[in-house]
Amino acid sequence: MTRKRSKWSSQFQDKNGVQLVEESADKYNGVPSMCLFFGSHYKFHVLTVLAVAAIGIAVAVFITNFKILSIFKIYVQLNHIDDGFVKEDAIKMSQVLQGTSGDSNIVQLSHKAENQESFLSQGGGNFQKLSCSGKQKGSCGKVDKRQKLSLQEFHNRYDGKWPVIVTDVMSSWPAINWTADFFKNKYGKRRVTMTTFANSVKSGFSVPLKIFLEHLHMSSPRAWTYLQDEMFLIQHPELREDVLQTVYMEEDLFKLLPSAVRPWDCMLLWGTAHSRSSLHIDPYNWTGTNAVISGHKLWKLLPPGQDNLLSVRPGMRCGFPLECVKYNSDLDLFDPAQQDRHTQLKFLEAEQGPGEIIFIPPGWFHQAYNEVPTLAVSGQMMNSNNYHIVLEEIFKGGSLKRSSLPENFGLMTPREAVAAMAARISQHVLEEGVRRTEEAIQQLYMPQP
Ligand SMILES: O=C(O)CCC(=O)C(=O)O
Predict the structure, then answer these.
(1) Closest residue (by CA) to atom 6 of ligand 1?
(2) Candidates 3.90.1150.10, 2.60.120.650, 3.10.450.60, 3.90.70.10; CATH matching 100-445
(3) Which residues cross the membrane (predicted)?
(4) Which pLDDT score, from 0 to 100, does residue 437 have?
């Protein structure tokens, strides 16, 4: 993921590098201030305020021609987001998002772990099967959908090598019964982080969940919103428990990392129709998981080795205390207007419905598109099949020196190797992890003085 708004890049930046905007303190005390008027007996004032607000909104909608999102943005801004900051933020983001093609800063990356090619060749001939290795461009097939997939076949054929959607492991998850009403009634006042896209500009916001849900069905191809919050479920263990383990994820070597630097592993993703992720590789090049609870996602997943076609900006960092390099492309594979920017790419496609979970191997750039309002949770895996790739990314991040490892490191089992690495993380990095987590929680969830 992104990772999205990451645990450690503070609440001001999401996994996709989007700046988040902080709202002022009095929002925390409950219902947004506009709503407080409704219980009041000052009916005349209420009507006046409502009339003025309605006229203001109507004029703004007319001017911007962004029917839905504009209402949303104005609503959010009325609720104390500092307008100046929003504008600055938008300008900064549009500079990042626009005009990057032909930029001499954009060069080919070499993010692949050395042994990834051999990994792929072990993948049961998947490349040959899909003729992805030939001259063919564009879509070279669909991601396999499997049920009753044995652990052995998962490990041999897919895990760490090739994407797969498993369709029969989520029916026992309590989360499959989650609804918008349930979240609105029980958690409506809790704040979430989300991205808006309008006028080709992405901006980040932190808003009460209720506000996001009230606008869930309002979007267009050029204006959408995407709740991407990796802290929310972790902060609500009773919800986190509704997301069960699958047999494929049982070996979890991330658990060997000290909690201060262990990535959060259950991100809430809730997008309006047309919302989408960036085109990216996940942090530490881990294996990503994404489980759809309701709605429908489309995916494009790129076999490794196409970085030179992806306009990936070099030098980007995840911003985690245990640093890593960030691989984000500025291409939007779901934007019809950008089609002639990626005619050379080869990719697999996938359609993912409720109750289906996708596994995305290391090294595969991927982008998801929510066709309709879609609720999902994402996570990650480090196991025997990819730990060496993840460790490689940790070393590349620079917070830990390879030379600090014992001589017999290469002979260690996966568990021993990850534990040896974890034991060498400096006190400073650990303290930084604790500090940033506390800061992020404080700023997102606690009332400000
Ligand atoms: O569902 C999505 O938006 C994609 C999320 C994703 O790619 C990720 O978490 O790495």
Answers:
(1) 1
(2) 2.60.120.650
(3) 44-63
(4) 86
